[in-house]
Amino acid sequence: MNRKFAAxxxxxxxxxxxxxxxxxxxxxxxxxxELRQLFPGQFRAHVKGYDVRFVASRNGRLKGYYGGFTxxxxxxxxxxxxxxxxxxxxxxxxxxxxxxxxxGWYLARGIRFRRM
Length: 116
Hints:
Layout: H1 3-15, H2 20-24, H3 32-38, E1 41-47, E2 50-56, E3 61-66, E4 69-78, E5 81-86, E6 94-98, E7 100-102, E8 105-108, E9 111-115
Antiparallel strand pairs: 1-2, 1-9, 2-3, 3-4, 4-5, 5-6, 7-8, 8-9
């Protein structure tokens, strides 16, 4: 998979429609205190069927790894929403989303992830 396609894939997943599992989840968004316990950390994510690894550092830095591709950006918490910015995969734009938990995974705007 080429870098441009991977970038489009991640971008569409972040801004596009949630997975069917997200539609089935009726859980309330995680409260801000629970998000603060979850982040920073290392995460395995499913984005449109692809495994992507993310490392969210204590200083707000975010790194994404997919195959031989990497991207860097920032993460932050705004109330009960997770906000991320990735230089290439999201064209430097910040997107924020509430996070829900269902079936051992966390769901945020079309991305399913869990701690590693």
